[in-house]
Amino acid sequence: MASPDGRHDARTPPPAEGSRVPWSAIPAPLRAAVERRLGGRVVTAITQPGGFSPGVAARLRLDDGRRAFVKAVGDINPDSPGIHRAEARIAAALPPGTPAPRLLSCIDADGWVILMLEDIEGRTPAIPWRPTELDRVLAAMTELAAALTPAPIEAPAIAGRFRSLGRGWRELAKSGPAAAAALGPWAAHLDELVALESGWAAAASGNSLVHADIRADNILLTPDRVVFVDWPWAALAAPWFDLVVMLPSVAMQGGPQPEEILGSHPVMRGADPAAITAVVGALAGMFVWLGGRPDPPGLPTLRAFQRAQGEVALAWLRQRTGWP
């Protein structure tokens, strides 16, 4: 539950977890193919719960002591195979030195998409956020934006990357009662919200390669670096896009409110405040709309996580617009 200022109760944040299945759920011939690609027999496979992809996410140890991380999906969720294929393309193209796991190999066969990635010896940030860890991540995001501007690889423009971003308020406007329930008295601004979100793509356009889905569960902290994992949504956008998209989850998980970070972060230098507000408006609309929809197959916690981010994003939008 969030307070009126959008600050979430960090003692009970919604979990960022999908519905995992074990390594053994992959058909035996495909598991054997993974072992051939990796050049060793799998002796242990430890499922990792974090993240929203349904399917296999496991740290593998081979009989020669080497390690790999495997992500795999079959027919659990109709969107997931395409998402895994997109991640394989991006991971294969990222230049050396990018703080991201290297793609070792990929198998796309018999209804399964299986990614074999470098296993990073690290952990996700503590929740609630610790100030020192958040500072590390924010500094790493500054370096990431600098290293990926201009984009070093081909990627789609952000305008065509997300089917849901920029349509939340429009969808809610069609429903009437759902919009009133979500907004209360602020439903009087629904037409303005629809107009605001319609400009998000132009506002966010740019020539930086952005991750587009940075949250605590997509970050690994090692003793000497910050690594950003899960890159299927990477796109061309303004260098500040990753920070703006991340901030509702930071506040929801016990960190500072968005404006406390936004005003002093280096990637925001020269950013147009109206462009930021348009993206925040689109984010708020997307989270509020999606948060009211049924759970997708294999993702039983996703809607609760989106609703919690929506509460923060909506409070942030009220602050930025000043609308009564």
Features:
324 residues, alpha+beta, Phosphorylase Kinase, domain 1, Aminoglycoside 3'-phosphotransferase, Chain: A, domain 2, five-stranded antiparallel sheet, 9 strands, 14% strand
CATH topology of the largest domain: Aminoglycoside 3'-phosphotransferase, Chain: A, domain 2
Given the helix and strand composition, which structural class is it?
Answer: alpha+beta
Span from first to last CA?
A: 22 Å
- Helix tally? 11
* CATH class value of the largest domain: Alpha Beta
Overall outline: globular
Strand content: 5-15%
Structural commentary:
The protein is built from eleven helices and nine strands. By secondary structure, the chain is of the alpha+beta class. The strands form three sheets. Strands 1-2-3-5-4 form a five-stranded antiparallel sheet, with helices on both faces. A two-stranded antiparallel sheet has the order 6-9. It has a two-stranded antiparallel sheet with strand order 7-8. Strand 2 (56-62) and strand 3 (67-73) form a beta hairpin. The model is unreliable at 1-10 (pLDDT under 50).
